[in-house]
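Example record

One chain of 150 residues, shown exactly as stored in the release files.
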Amino acid sequence: MDSALLYKMTIWTGPSYDESGRRGVLTIEAYFKVALWGSISENRNNYLPGIGIPFFQEWVSDELGMYIPESDVNVKFEREQSAETEDDEITVDFRVMTYRGKHISAQSYSQQTIPLEDTGSAYDPEYEQDTAAAGDEEDDEDWEEEESES
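Predicted structure tokens for this chain:
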């Protein structure tokens, strides 16, 4: 293989009725994009869904307070395109469509990123928490220094 390939994966669930949030019927979609080296078969069947599905489930739980079982999650890939280099992270865009009668509304959420590990391991939900906690500790140290100077 002469170049990396750009993968575009869509993960979605729905339409399903949201009883807890009283939002009506929801369809939740996530669009993943990353350039990778390696086997198309391995990346499509194991690697990317292994990262994407848990990330999708956690995001839905955090943002919407809903649990989505893996059996209700759908995955589809677009045709790969050539890419010059491999990416360091996966970019993810989320969209939630709400249907109430004939009224349909779509809400986009801010783009998320998933850092890729050299080990090729799946998504680690603790990564963002560990990174945020490390940032909080640095902020606390700065705060303590400012207090001691006053």
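Notes: The chain has one domain: 4-124.
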